[in-house]
Amino acid sequence: MLKQLLARKTDFSGADGAHGVALQRTLGPWGLTALGIGAVIGGGIFVITGQAAAEHAGPAIILSFIIAAVCCSFTALCYAEFATLIPMSGSSYSYAYATLGELVAWFIGWNMVLEYGVSASAVAVSWTGYFTSFLDNMGMHLPAVLTNAPLAYQDGHLVATGALFNLPAVAITLALTWLCYVGIRESSGANLAMVILKVGLIVVVIVAGWQYVNPHYWEPFIPPQQGPEKYGWAGIMRASTLVFFAYIGFEATSTAAQEAKNPQRDLPIGTLVSLAVCTVLYIGMAAVITGLLPFDQLGTSEPVVTAVRAHPQLNWLRWLVEIGALIGLSSVVLVMIIAQPRIFMIMGNDGLLPPVFAKIHPRYKTPHINTVITGLGIAALAAVFPLDILGDLVSMGTLIAFVAVCAGVLILRYTHPELPRTFRVPWAPVICTLGVLCCLGLLYWENWYQWLLMGIWTLIGLAIYFGYGYRHSRLRRSRATMQPN
After folding, report:
1. Which of 83, 97, 262, 480 could disulfide-pair with 9, CB 3.0 to 4.6 Å?
2. Transmembrane ranges (predicted)?
3. What b/e readout covers 86-104, taking b as 16+ CB neighbours within 10 angstroms?
């Protein structure tokens, strides 16, 4: 049994069409880069930036973004090398399967459900806040019972709020699910258009807002520590774990590997360029909003709007911010709905999930059943739960996956040095080790209840694996047929 749990998958030659209809290869470097930017620029820049500054880091939220970006850059280099070795849609799940064995691969894949599915629900909930604000500015109002979650977390337990469900979050999720269902060309084209619009709007906000920045609001740059995780360096590190959520998704490019025209060349470009662009935009926006308003006033659900509203000369920007936020958050949900079904598809191909998860639509060339399952699951979570509950687990699951990817590059360098690598991590022992240490360091700053929730999530995943995946593993069956009688 232990041998099976540690079994590694080494043959990825049958990725395309081995189990029926193949995915359609339509994405080039620009489309893949847009997927990465589409997944990253959203809730972080429009929601988390202000809250992390107000509650933890102050103006030094800029340092928090830099720390998280450095951690992600080490991991991005490792993803880029893996993408040239294993051009499959399984992302870190497939990479772990090739280096650390089946059980770890399942654990990573199960955590990616958190990264893509649950984070999309959290972003959809954030979308509702900007959407209702946009309607309010136009003189239209939705009843609170249809724009809030029926459950809230107070004093250590769930309580009813009296709301029915979050209708706007459900509506946007189902609309984007339909778009992902009908084809990668259509959904990636819509994402590219949204990325161009939201990046342009963010640049306008940064340039226009910079003229009204008051440098005195940046003093002191690192506020004196007032508690275990409030200001000082402890607050900066805690804020780094929060804004890390903002970077989640840059590796979403690797989930589209089987729809890339030239994955060995284009996937590294898409991963690294998208991370670089997003880091510059995050730092620029963080500097502007903390310079427009004292940082302790930014802890709202719409911190960018709050900062702009403080300056009457920038009232014209409010509309652009809200439109940019709606577009940005929509593209994040869209990319997550693209990514998650492809993880399910690879796990289904490997036998760790039922065969229905491996099906591809004969006309649209998409994992259509997985897309429907993912969309309905995201909509259900967004309808019922508030943002703070949904966001608790996401960063932890992603950090654990990143640790596996960084370690996996080193393992393959020693176990299979002969494999052709069109992209190689420079100074791999140093970069990979720093990547592992950075991710573990950010995990250290997570709260105890997040570890408890992660433990519960892991137990559920193990129950599914040992109840189904272990007995139906395609790798296990192929090895069993090769054993001599």
Report:
1. 97
2. 32-54, 60-82, 94-113, 163-184, 191-211, 231-250, 271-293, 316-339, 369-387, 393-415, 427-445, 451-470
3. bbbbbbbbbbbbbbbbbbb
CA dihedral 460, 465, 466, 468 (to 10 degrees): 120
Task: Give the pair of three-digit tokens for residue 164.
Answer: 């029915």
Which uninterrupted H or E stretch holds 401?
helix 394-415
Q: What is the DSSP letter of 223?
A: P
Residue 429 corresponds to which tokens in the numbers above? 């022992």
Quote the distance between the C-alpha of residue 138 and its chain's center.
Answer: 32
Cα 131 to Cα 471: distance, rounded to the nearest angstrom: 46
Please tell me the total number of residues recorded for the chain in this structure: 485
Look up the pTM and report it. 0.79
Backbone angle region of 91, left / alpha / beta, with phi > 0 → left and psi within -120 to 50 → alpha = left
Residue 362, burial from CB neighbour count under 10 angstroms (0-12, 13-18, 19+): exposed
| Residue 309 CB neighbours (<10 A) | 17
**Cα–Cα nearest to 427, from 441, 406, 443:** 406
With vertex at residue 405, the alpha carbon angle to CA 404 and CA 410, rounded to the nearest 5 degrees, is 95
Mean pLDDT by groups of 10 residues along the chain of 485 residues:
67 48 65 78 75 88 90 85 72 80 87 79 84 84 87 70 89 92 74 83 90 91 84 88 73 69 76 86 91 88 83 85 84 84 87 88 85 92 75 70 86 82 85 90 75 85 91 77 54
**Interatomic CA distance for residues 334 and 394, integer angstroms:** 17
**Domains along the chain?**
25-482 (1.20.1740.10)
Cα distances (angstroms) measured from residue 75 to each of 66, 72, 131: 14, 5, 34
C-beta neighbour count of 127 within 10 angstroms: 28
